[in-house]
């Protein structure tokens, strides 16, 4: 018997048109959830929503009114909100060196990665408090917030700030049985990572080559690279009642990369 873990729960997923967001949307729907996809990629988002029996709404998370409208759609559709996944984000193009950062680009990145998350937590919390049923708010962070040198400065700052916001919000919202957690992936061969690699010099890299690289360099589990489905499974766990006593937590989906030095693995290898 297949256990459906989100039966009749209502979820809003920002950045749900592709990549991690789309994988989570599909997995949530397979587990019985009603999903609203909020994105700026209208054609892709509408296609995914239709395929899972969900709803789509155009949503630029940097605009608070757009995020509020996405949550209002969920409420008008099903009457309540149980899950909010703040997944929309960009890699940024503010420059490599701290000495030459383009501050306009940094502000733009923060408007999406950080302010967009604030908008999502704020309006999801309002709906969940009013509904008096509790809920789960999940934010997609990054291993870059834990370990320096994994991403550009602006992206790293935005995700580190998100982690602090998650802990702070969890303190306030726990009294309403609203859990607030984040997920920190690393080395996931998504469209965003592929685009970032190409933008910063590796113009000929293919999706397959990216998978090979992250499978050998971004995990203690050699030959076992991350997938967007790994992150979606983590989101499913945090969205479900199985994680009912977990809040203010950062769930790392990184193959151990930010916890241990893979260069030491030779100690445990058979000398033969």
UniProtKB/TrEMBL annotation:
Highest taxon of the lineage: Eukaryota
GO molecular function per UniProt: oxidoreductase activity
SUPFAM superfamilies in UniProt: NAD(P)-binding Rossmann-fold domains
Keywords, ordered alphabetically: Oxidoreductase
Gene3D superfamilies, alphabetized: NAD(P)-binding Rossmann-like Domain
Pfam families attached to this UniProt entry: adh_short_C2
Similarity section: Belongs to the short-chain dehydrogenases/reductases (SDR) family.
Protein name per Swiss-Prot or TrEMBL: Sex determination protein tasselseed-2
Organism field: Cajanus cajan
